Amino acid sequence: MTFSIAARCADSGQLGVAVTSSSICVASRCARVSSGVGAALSQNVTDPALGPALLELCRQGLSAEEALQQVVQSTPAVEHRQLALIDHTGSAVFYSGDKALGLYAGAVGSNCVSAGNLLANEKVPEAIVESFESTTGALAERLIGALLAGEAAGGEAGPVKSAGVMVAQDASWPIVDLRVDWDEANPLTALKELWKLYQPQAEDYRTRALDPEAAPSYGVPGDT
Fold first, then answer.
1. Under 8 Å between Cβ of 101 and 83
2. What phi, psi does 8 have (nearest 5°)?
3. What's the pLDDT tens digit per position in 109-155?
4. Contact 145/176 with Cβ under 8 angstroms?
5. What is d(CA 160, CA 171) in angstroms, rounded to the nearest whole number?
6. Domains in the chain and their CATH numbers?
7. Ranges under pLDDT 70 in the chain
8. Which residues, including other chains, have CB under 8 Å from residue 49's CB and lie 6 or more apart?
9. Whole-number Å distance between alpha carbons of 91 and 57
10. If you write DSSP's letter for every residue of 182-199 in order, what string do you get?
11. DSSP class per residue in the chain
């Protein structure tokens, strides 16, 4: 009931994920990023603990493939899970257990990996990867655009209702963490509009955290 992408920006070193689903609040359960380490997705019959577990292994020095193999080998009921992981070098892998729901598939590209289940067709992850590889610019925007390409290629078998995008750069917290937890119309369209609002302010919020003396005004009444 999900399709997603994890990716790395080769220019900035940013790491990010974007995910959409027919289930509520998908990003809160499935998406994880860590600056300088990697980006992970745990989906299908979701175990939210598996994303942090994958990233912790990468933090310890394992490659994406080694981390994924270790989690798959040590996780009970892993046949119900679908996982995707990219490490800080751009190495990317995915795993789909044989009890994943409906039609499931995955694809790996240059600095990106996509996976999905309950898909309308098995070409959806390939369309997501192709979109990411063919675009430039802000990582969050490329991630959202890639999911929109996946939707255009068929997307999930049913309508999606939630979506989110998360990007890590050089801090212990994500510099982008935007979510549409439920939208009856189209959460990907809503997420794209939310990013348009946030993008001009994103660097200011990062500066306020890392160097408050250099922080710009909020531009609200009472802030001089």
1. no
2. -130, 140
3. 999 999 999 999 999 999 999 999 999 999 999 999 999 999 999 99
4. no
5. 31
6. 2-193 (3.60.20.10)
7. 224
8. 42
9. 14
10. --SS-HHHHHHHHHHHHH
11. -EEEEEEE-TTT--EEEEEEESSTTHHHHHEEEETTTEEEEEEES--TTHHHHHHHHHHTT--HHHHHHHHHHH-TTGGGEEEEEEETTS-EEEEE-TT-SSS-EEEEETTEEEEEESBSSTTHHHHHHHHHHT--S-HHHHHHHHHHHHHHTT-BSS---EEEEEEE-SSSS-SEEEEE---SS-HHHHHHHHHHHHHHHHHHHHHHHH-GGGPPP--STT--
Query: What residue type is assigned to position 165 of the chain?
Result: V
The label of the residue with tokens 């996982």 reads: 83
Q: Which amino acid is at 9?
A: C
